[in-house]
Amino acid sequence: MNKIAKPGDIGRHVKEKRKNDDLTQADLASLCSVGIRLISELENGKPTIQVGKILQVLECLGLEMKIVPRGRVEETEL
């Protein structure tokens, strides 16, 4: 599991998954019903993007975020 400490961490994961799926920013924007600008800003770590929009893009990519107490070891890490 990867720790998310700043907005850019989310953007890095989104960009990596988008590229692994061989999608352009325009492709992903269309699939997620958001604008290309939002995808660009998300990938570049803009801190003021609405959480709902971030979750919408993550779902489109088949990604999810989890909130766990600090220091907790997830079962998938064992």
Summarize the entry for a quick read.
The chain is built from four helices and no strands. The protein is an all-alpha fold and 78 residues long. Helix 2 crosses helix 3 (36-43) and helix 2 crosses helix 4.
Low confidence ranges: none
Strand content: under 5%
Helix/strand-derived category reads mainly alpha
User: What is the assigned CATH homologous superfamily?
Assistant: lambda repressor-like DNA-binding domains
Give a description of the structure.
The chain is mainly alpha-helical and 78 residues long. The chain has a single domain (7-77), classed as lambda repressor-like DNA-binding domains (434 Repressor (Amino-terminal Domain)). It is 53% helix and 0% strand. The chain contains 4 helices and no strands. Helix 2 crosses helix 3 (36-43) and helix 2 packs across helix 4 (51-61). The N and C termini lie close together (11 Å).
Helix/strand layout:
Layout: H1 7-20, H2 25-32, H3 36-43, H4 51-61
Features:
0% strand, 78 residues, 4 helices, globular
